[in-house]
Amino acid sequence: MNRKYRKTIIAGNWKMNKTPSETKEFMTEFKSIMPKGRWCDVALCVPAVCIPMAVRCMRETRVGIGAENCNANASGAYTGEIAANMLVDAGCKYVIIGHSERRAMGETDADVNAKVHAALKAELMPIVCVGETLEQRDLGITEDWISMQVKCALHGVPEEKIRKIVVAYEPIWAIGTGKTATPEQAEEVCEHIRTVIRKLYGAKIARAISILYGGSMNEKNAFELLAQPDIDGGLIGGASLVPEKFVQIIEAANQPTV
Ligand code: 13P
């Protein structure tokens, strides 16, 4: 983390977990144990049907609610899809774009780029996910792959809008596997992402962008991961479903930095 230049963000990704009633239970408990005072930005990205309940429960707090996906189009004949402006109207501040689980369902880099543009147009903050498979890591092409994903996702995003974007590095082999990247492995790629952004937008912008790590991050390993200079927060799956665990990760993000 480097709080001098950029925001620290702890974001939960609930994936396909919790009903609206369970959302209410979670938020009630979470609110009662949430750290007070100065702390990092906190986001909870929840299933679409849970958004109204999450927004209602967290109205008077500093927790931002987000969606897990959006459609690239503003409106039209796209049965079952949700547009970015609908999410904004429902009270969302964030939207996860290009999660590997969605890419596995067929979402391409071009789709990710179109969704990033749609989210920015609606003034949602996109949390753009990138990450390599174990096979790519073993082949030694992690950095090339990540460069390509970042460049595709940001294609055509103007300088004045780039600061609204958050990038999340999520190695696919670490998601839901309990196999976390070591702080060094995670830092190496997050630093690389910052270098890619520096080449595209310059040093000042690269320094200001928050880059998160995701993949089996939990209350035990968060402190060490967040102590890395280029890891500005976390995108947390499993551990964000349990209020006490999520709170402990937020507390780990409140550690002093250099
Ligand atoms: P886990 O924390 O459950 O590994 O999930 C990470 C993730 O995919 C967050 O988007």
TrEMBL record:
GO terms for biological process: gluconeogenesis; glyceraldehyde-3-phosphate biosynthetic process; glycerol catabolic process; glycolytic process. It is found in: Cytoplasm. Pathway: Carbohydrate degradation; glycolysis; D-glyceraldehyde 3-phosphate from glycerone phosphate: step 1/1; Carbohydrate biosynthesis; gluconeogenesis. The active site is at H99, E170. Gene3D superfamilies: Aldolase class I. The keyword Cytoplasm applies. One of its GO terms (molecular function) is triose-phosphate isomerase activity. GO terms for cellular component: cytosol. It comes from the Bacteria. It catalyses: D-glyceraldehyde 3-phosphate = dihydroxyacetone phosphate. InterPro entries: Aldolase_TIM (IPR013785), TIM_sf (IPR035990), TrioseP_Isoase_bac/euk (IPR022896), Triosephosphate_isomerase (IPR000652), Triosephosphate_isomerase_AS (IPR020861). Belongs to the triosephosphate isomerase family. Homodimer. HAMAP family: TIM_B (MF_00147_B). Involved in the gluconeogenesis. Catalyzes stereospecifically the conversion of dihydroxyacetone phosphate (DHAP) to D-glyceraldehyde-3-phosphate (G3P). This is Triosephosphate isomerase. The lineage of its organism: Bacteria, Bacillati, Bacillota, Clostridia, Eubacteriales. The gene is tpiA.
